[in-house]
Amino acid sequence: MAEKRNLGNDAAVDKMTFEQAIGRLQEIVEKVETGQIGLEEAITQYERGCQLVRHCKQILDTAERKIEVLSKGLDGQIAAKPLPADVEAENEEE
C-alpha cells in the first residue's frame, strides 16, 4: 500500500482563504530557497505548493467570473469601467 505523505499541519487547502494560501506559499518558498529543509521535504512541500497554487487560481477564476457578471450592461456586453479614485489611491499606496 502506498504511503500517504503529510502535506502540512495547516487547514485543508480547499478551506483556506486566498490570503492564507498565499501566505503558506510564501512560507514554503522561503524554506526551500534558504535550504531549511532537505530534498524529501522539499518535494513534499512542492506538492503542497502545487495544491495551493491550484486553489488560488480557482479563487481568482471565481472572482473574475463574478466581476464579469457584475460588469455586464443591459445589452449583455461587458463594459470596462474605471476604478473609483479611492481604490486607485489605495492600490498606489501598496
Number of domains: 1
Share of residues in strands = under 5%
Question: What is the tally of helical segments?
Answer: 3
- Model regions low in confidence, pLDDT < 50 over at least 5 residues: 1-9, 87-94
Nearest-integer average pLDDT = 77
SSE order: HHH
What about the largest sheet? none
Compute the CA-based radius of gyration: 19 Å
In total, how many beta strands?
0
Helix content: 55-70%
End-to-end gap = 49 Å
Q: Could you say which structural class the secondary elements and strand pairing correspond to?
A: mainly alpha
Mass-distribution shape: elongated
Describe this structure in words.
The protein is mainly α and 94 residues long. It has 3 helices and no strands. α1 (18-33) runs antiparallel to α2. The longest helix has 33 residues, at 39-71.
Summarize the structure.
With 94 residues, the chain is mainly alpha-helical.
Main features:
94 residues, mainly alpha, disordered N terminus, disordered C terminus
Any chance you could write out the topology, listing elements then pairs?
Blueprint (H helix, E strand, L loop, with lengths): L17 H16 L5 H33 L13 H9 L1
Helix pairs in contact: 1-2
